[in-house]
Amino acid sequence: MTRPSAGPADHPETVSGDDPHAAIRAEVARLCAGFPGAYWRELDREGTYPEAFVRALAEGGWLAALIPEEYGGSGLGLSAAAAILEEVQHAGCNGAACHAQMYIMGALLRHGSEAQKARYLPQIARGELRLQAFGVTEPTSGTDTTALRTTARREGDHYVVNGQKIWTSRAEYSDLMLLLARTTPREQAQKRTDGLSVFLLDMREARQAGLTIRPIRTMMNHATTEVFFDNVRVPAENLIGEEGRGFRYILSGMNAERILIGAECIGDAKWFIDKATAYAKERVVFGRPIGQNQGVQFPIAKAYARMRAAELMVHRAAALFEAGQNCGAEANMAKMLAAEASWEAAEISVQTHGGFGFAEEYDVERKFRETRLYQVAPVSTNLILSYLAEHVLGLPRSY
Question: What is the pTM of this model?
Answer without folding.
Answer: 0.93
